[in-house]
Amino acid sequence: MKTLNLFVVTWSLASFCALSFTICVIYGLLTPHSLHMHEFLEMVLPAYEWGSFPLFFVGLVESFLYGAYAGLVYVPIYNFFLKKWDPESNHTQYREEKGFRTTAKTEMDRVCGMWIETEAAKGTSFYKDETYYFCTEECKAKFDQNPDYYMVGVEGRKP
């Protein structure tokens, strides 16, 4: 998985909120008074007042800032948990920190969970039209004895 870009997400959410506010105001102008939600807009946007053209721009800015705030809070939290729990991003970060070549093809050893370069694998097995790579002959032998057990990955196995 790829980390989220703070700038892109923040501007996207801010623009979405400002556009939504504008659509709500236009809807309120085109429909009867009983069908629109000007009370709600005034409640969530403290400086906004329905029917005041100059304050429309204040509401627009407030909406934009709420969206920007959401992006500025959400993206770092998302990226933090992505790095914490996504094995692919952890693997890439680990490889970069250790100075491994990033162009080599890598696979996860299904038995121990170690990431290995395919050309440096100590053993391979072919199962269900796929080739699996192993860091040691022992891992290969364990996989060959019960391949279905190792198909769920290291985290999902029962002891």
Automatic annotation (TrEMBL):
Keyword annotations of the record: Membrane, Transmembrane, Transmembrane helix
Residue spans crossing the bilayer: 7-30, 50-75
Keyword Transcription regulation listed: no
Tagged with keyword Coiled coil: no
Domain of life: Bacteria
Domain TRASH stretches: 109-147
The protein, known as: DUF5676 family membrane protein
Species assigned in the record: Candidatus Nitronereus thalassa
